[in-house]
Amino acid sequence: MQYLPSKKFFIFLFTLTILLSVGWYLNSPKTHQTIQTNTSSKKKDSSTGIIAKKDTDGDGLLDWEETLWGMNPDNPDTDGDGISDNEEVLAQEHTLSLESIASISPASDTLSDDEPPSLVAQIAQDFGKTYLQQKFTTSSIDTERMSTDLVTKLQNTIVEESSRNLSSPFSEKDIIVIKENSSSALLTYINGLGNAIQSMPHIEKNGILLFTLGLSKQEIISEDLFTEELTGYLTLIESLKKIPVPKSMADTHIALMNNFWHQYQIIRSLSKVDSDPVRALAAFNRYPEIAEESLSPLGAIIDSIVQNDLSFTEEDGGLVFVSYKELRK
């Protein structure tokens, strides 16, 4: 029998996560509304609840239990040996020890060194251990309660990940700071900044739109479709490192670079929805905060333009900021 948690369970968790996100998305009255932490007074999504408590083949094992063991939820005797899947699972009580349960690790594809561990893999590992401990060390197991807890765990993990601090790796040591703060120096800086931003590739459907469309259609968007935008953010950040920055604008410039890095991290997480839907949905949940974060450095740039009475020609990169002046009033 396949040891758990099997990759089928990852698929099951993926399905639950997508249903959770789709249910929230379709019922949200706003274009983007963040998910809130689950409370006892909040109705749980009916679709996820039904799937979490389903026993398709009627063998006494819920579908999610069968996916934990790598069995087929549609077949009461997956291996065709005449012994029901439920009986085979019960037989494991004699072969599994608490030590072997504690050593369970998720059967997921390994990620590269710069990838964070999959939240789906972590949930699968923790849930698998809890399940086994209850299955073989107590007189009975409340599978309905575990089903409900699984949905709640997914939802709360999304909320927790959404509130996790994002790294802000850039500081003054990463940029070129000049002492001059004249209007001429500011004009040169803002033009250079505008040119760098406008060099970002024009993408008809950015990562947020792609992910939103995926939710509305209940489809997974190919990771390749996010590549151009991700590369664009990294290229932009490298360009910002090379622009001479007047001392008075150093903090603003650093904040802008870190915000672009945060946007990169959001889109990167969205692009990994196929392997880690929990982190992807958390990133989508986080996006409004990151978008609002960008308003602070943008406002400082507009203030500098107004206070120094800077003007731009049609060819100047700084012209891109002029349209935001009215929003600053």
What does this protein look like?
- The structure is a single chain.
- This protein is 57% helix and 2% strand.
- It folds into 2 domains: 7-162, no CATH class; 172-328.
- The protein has helices at 7-27, 46-52, 63-68, 85-91, 98-102, 119-137, 143-162, 183-198, 207-217, 227-241, 250-271, 277-293, 295-307, 319-322, 325-328, and strands spanning 176-178, 244-246.
- It has a two-stranded parallel ribbon with strand order 1-2.
- The chain has 15 helices and 2 strands.
- Mean pLDDT is 77; it is low at 1-6, 22-46 and 104-113.
- The protein is elongated.
- The longest helix has 22 residues, at 250-271.
- It is an all-alpha fold and 329 residues long.
Radius of gyration, whole Å: 25 Å
N-to-C order of helices and strands = HHHHHHHEHHHEHHHHH
Low-confidence stretches: 1-6, 22-46, 104-113
Helix content: 55-70%
Oligomer: single chain
Kindly list the characteristics that best describe this protein.
329 residues; mainly alpha; 2 domains; two-stranded parallel ribbon; 2 strands; 57% helix; disordered N terminus
Describe the secondary structure blueprint for this structure:
Layout: H1 7-27, H2 46-52, H3 63-68, H4 85-91, H5 98-102, H6 119-137, H7 143-162, E1 176-178, H8 183-198, H9 207-217, H10 227-241, E2 244-246, H11 250-271, H12 277-293, H13 295-307, H14 319-322, H15 325-328
Parallel strand pairs: 1-2
Helix pairs in contact: 1-2, 6-7, 7-12, 10-11, 11-12, 11-13
Quick structural gist:
The protein folds into two domains: 7-162, no CATH class; 172-328. It contains 15 helices and two strands.
